[in-house]
Amino acid sequence: MKLELKNLSVTLSDKKILKSINLMVEDGEFISLLGASGCGKSTMLKTIAGLINQSEGSVILDGNIADKIPAHKRRTIIVFQNFRLFPNMTVWENVSFPLKILGVEKKQAREKALELLKKVKLEGYENRSVDELSGGQMQRVALARALAAEPIVLLLDEPFSSLDMNLRKDMRELVSELQKEYKITTILVTHDQEEALTMSNRIAFMHSGQIEQYDTPENIFKHPVNTIVADYFSKGIYVNGEITNNRFVSELFTSNANKHNGKYKCLIRPLAVKVNKYYKGDFKVASKIYQGDNFLLKIHNSKDLKLESIISDSVDIVEGDRVNIELDMDRLIFIPEKQ
Amino acid sequence: MKDINSNKLLKLFLYLVLFAILTPMIILLLLAFASRWPWPSLLPDTYSLRAIKEVLAPHTKVVSTLFSSIILSLSVAILSAIVGTMTARALVLYEFKGKGFIDFLGLAPNIVPGAIFAMGIHVVFIKISLADTVLGVIIVHLMYTLPYSINIMRDLTKSIGDQMEMQAYVLGASPLKAFMYITLPLLTPGIMASVSMAYITSFSQYFITLLIGGGKVKTISLLMVPFITKGDRNIGSAYALVFAISTLLVFIIIDKIIKKITISK
Predict the structure, then answer these.
(1) What are the angstrom distances between the C-alpha of B257 and each of B52, B66, B68, B77, B84?
(2) Both B167 and B232 in a single domain?
(3) What is the pLDDT of residue B254?
(4) Using a CB-CB distance cutoff of 8 angstroms, which residues of chain B are in contact with residue A98?
(5) Cα–Cα distance for residue pair A249/A254, rounded to 1 Å
(6) Can you tell me the distance from the alpha carbon of A175 to that of A180, in angstroms, rounded to the nearest whole number?
(7) Out of B167, B177, B262, whose CB is closest to A84?
(8) What angle do CA B20, B21, B23 make, to 5 degrees?
(9) Which of A18, B25, B62, B113 has the fewest CB atoms within 10 Å, i.e. is most exposed?
(10) Contacts B186 to A, Cβ<8 Å
(11) A207 pLDDT tier (thresholds 50, 70, 90)
(12) B41 and B110, same structural domain?
């Protein structure tokens, strides 16, 4: 089901939480709402589901304005971070709850619940009580229950943040598989950029109640529209400069840049900096930090320009060494300065 | 080692509590059947059925009074649980003007001394002709029991919150269904506690029942208290036994009913 938000604003206790949001999610698409906590992601999810009323604008489902449809008739189903399994019911009763509400016969409802439990790989758990489950198992039950309600839009509210690392990866894969199988339009709310980058077709980056950028994972990572978006994915050093006639000129370097004329900030992420050991090099290695797969190198020159670089563990550079740098021009990011 | 020690301590407390509950019960039992119990004998010298016979004699109408007393207190208990649950829900989950004031008002009958409160309300009840009626007694009992019911239900409602209900909404349940299927079963232990608390509070009211009921609304407490204060402890004890046993039976029945309701759901 296609979902569209039009000029959606939400005010809660005199505070503007969402400021005129416009968003379009295609049928069967998987998008992520990415942003730091408190930026309004969860509020947006609840507004789509009808749990919070917007002060302005509309939620449009498949071309029809859904503002007047109450939460229980919208079929926009949220899976919450804390799973919210009903403690007074067993696993299968939880999964079949939406069917019970629809008046499906008990025997049929149980069969359907067992089928869904199989889908989330929880066979044999149907008669357990929910407090006997681990975090990952609860998550699976919550997913199966959401699927039982046959959602037209599935809303996932930070569903993996309470799970440990290994489990998180499994659950991400499971969710992706199910989403593809059922072709449900899905919105994932997350503050984890890796999660957003790996799982979604498109990412909507949110900051203080607004969508800053809405693009594919690759585009949003490589071409962030402003420093807020850029910093969220991977921090780096900004160098101020100016582009004239497709050439970026700064104190540190000049480079080709296919952009309009004007003042720009050039973001240099660690991956864009290559270092070579050279005893007369301009830069000095201030520190070398072990990161498992590689090392993060912090370097600076005589003008106190600080850069970071990533080197593999086989490179023989230690703290105090002098190095030369080489910038990978393709990885430089130019962000126009606000006028 | 630590485990064993704390176990011993727990056992000690258990026995202390048992002692505190059982000793008065045993003395009550002995008193009800004692005929001569001079000091310093540990047990009565002679026993008799005088007190029991007196209590069960047809002219005291103990059975019918007991029955109407139970009905009255049950009505109070159930009303108190319903109003308490709803009030607690409003106080915890909704925002409205004057919330703090209503919160405070709920406690008011417990802050003002009972006698003063009863005198004041009596005048009002006479004016609106609620004095000397069963309804009047029920209402005045409710004022005493509601603070307990509201407080019990408020803490529970707060701990359950509305998260589960929200989940039920998005899964397709209407607000009423979400409450019936999800919240109500979770509230059941609290409702049970609230019913018991209100029942026992109402059942043991003497002064306000006498005042508002004007002696026309008879309860078991009204029959019992004069014997205790007049000094016929044997008859007083016999009434107390009737009081305790009937209350216990009522609680067992309530418990059975509630278990049946929640399990069948």
Answers:
(1) 31, 21, 20, 15, 20
(2) yes
(3) 85
(4) 171-172
(5) 5
(6) 9
(7) B167
(8) 70
(9) B113
(10) 87-88
(11) very high
(12) no
Domains in chain A, ordered, with CATH? 3-230 (3.40.50.300), 235-336 (2.40.50.140)
Q: Tell me how many degrees the CA angle A94-A182-A137 measures, rounded to the nearest 5.
A: 35
Is the pLDDT confidence value at B135 over 90? Answer: yes
Q: Among the ranges A177-181, A269-273, B227-231, which has the highest mean pLDDT value?
A: A177-181
Give the residue numbers spanning the domain of B23. 2-48
**Strand residues in A26-173 grouped as ranges (E):** 30-34, 56-61, 64-65, 76-79, 153-157
pLDDT for residue A205: 94
What pLDDT digit, counting tens, does each position of B141-176 carry? 998 899 889 989 999 999 998 899 999 999 999 999
**Is the Cβ pair B173, A97 closer than 8 Å?**
yes
Shared domain check, B218 and B147: yes
Q: How far apart are CA A187 and CA A42, in angstroms?
A: 11
pTM summary value: 0.81
Tell if the CB–CB gap between B168 and A86 is shorter than 8 Å. yes
Q: Is B176 on the interface with A (CB under 8 A)?
A: no
Average pLDDT over residues B193-214: 91
Across chain B, mean pLDDT equals 88
- Does A149 touch chain B if contact means CB atoms closer than 8 Å? yes
Q: Could you tell me the strand order of the sheet in which A247-250 lies? A: A254-256, A247-250, A237-244, A262-268, A333-336
Could you tell me if B178 and B227 lie in one domain? yes
Task: For residue B164, give the chain A residue with the closest CA.
Answer: A84
B74 and B185 inside one domain: yes
Provide the pairing of β-strand A262-268 with A333-336.
antiparallel
Contact with chain A for residue B35, Cβ under 8 A: no
Residue A138: which pLDDT band, with cuts at 50, 70 and 90?
A: very high
pLDDT band at A302 (very low <50, low <70, confident <90, very high): confident
**Is pLDDT above 80 for B115?**
no
Average pLDDT of span A51-77:
91
B179 and B249 assigned to the same domain: yes
- pLDDT of B262 > 70? The answer is no
Based on the fold, state whether residues B109 and B153 are members of the same structural domain.
Answer: yes
Q: How many domains does chain B have?
A: 2
Whether residue B128 is found in the same domain as residue B157: yes
CATH number at residue B117: 1.10.3720.10
